[in-house]
Amino acid sequence: MEVINTLGRRKTAVARIYFKEGSGVITVNKKDYKVYFPTSVLQYYVTQPLELTALMGQYDIKVNLDGGGVTGQAQALSLAISRALCKMNAELRPILKAKGLMRRDPRMVERKKPGQKKARKKFQFSKR
């Protein structure tokens, strides 16, 4: 099996992964994913596609992550892993799609407007 290269995005986070057969090592920015994502919720985001398809521990994943915060990065990585699994075996797509792992979440931060404090919040109004 050759190396499968996919991309996942969430907010401003971008995950580029290299997916190949191996012993189940997930390396994120040259660190183990449990070191990079210290909380169990973020680790669950990363491993969810592999656990749903019962392929945990069969593939090595090398990840380059940049942009965004840790939650956005974990969700971007989840999407990239799901896409790689579908490239490898198209029969896995319905399982991942049913859990919503094949959809790129389009929600982004709304921009700040001029003359306002934030995107929607205004400066305090003073009558006198």
Short description:
With 128 residues, this protein is α+β, with helices and mostly antiparallel strands. The chain has 4 helices and 5 strands; from the N terminus they run E-E-E-E-H-H-E-H-H.
Relevant terms:
single chain, 128 residues, alpha+beta, Ribosomal Protein S5, domain 2, five-stranded mixed sheet, 5 strands, elongated
Structure, described:
There is one protein chain. The chain is α+β, with helices and mostly antiparallel strands and 128 residues long. It has one domain (4-98): Ribosomal Protein S5, domain 2, CATH 3.30.230. 33% of the residues lie in helices and 23% in strands. The protein has four helices and five strands. It has helices spanning 33-36, 40-52, 70-88, 93-98, and strands at 4-10, 13-21, 26-28, 31-32, 59-66. Helix 2 packs parallel to helix 3 (70-88). The model has no long low-confidence stretch (mean pLDDT 92).
**Tally the helices: what do you get?**
4
Helical percent range? 25-40%
Please count the beta strands (DSSP E, at least 2 residues each). Answer: 5
The tally of structural domains comes to: 1
The CATH C-level name is Alpha Beta
| Mean pLDDT score | 92
Principal-axis shape: elongated
- As a whole number of angstroms, the C-alpha radius of gyration is 18 Å
Structural class: alpha+beta
Strand order across the largest sheet: 1-2-5-3-4
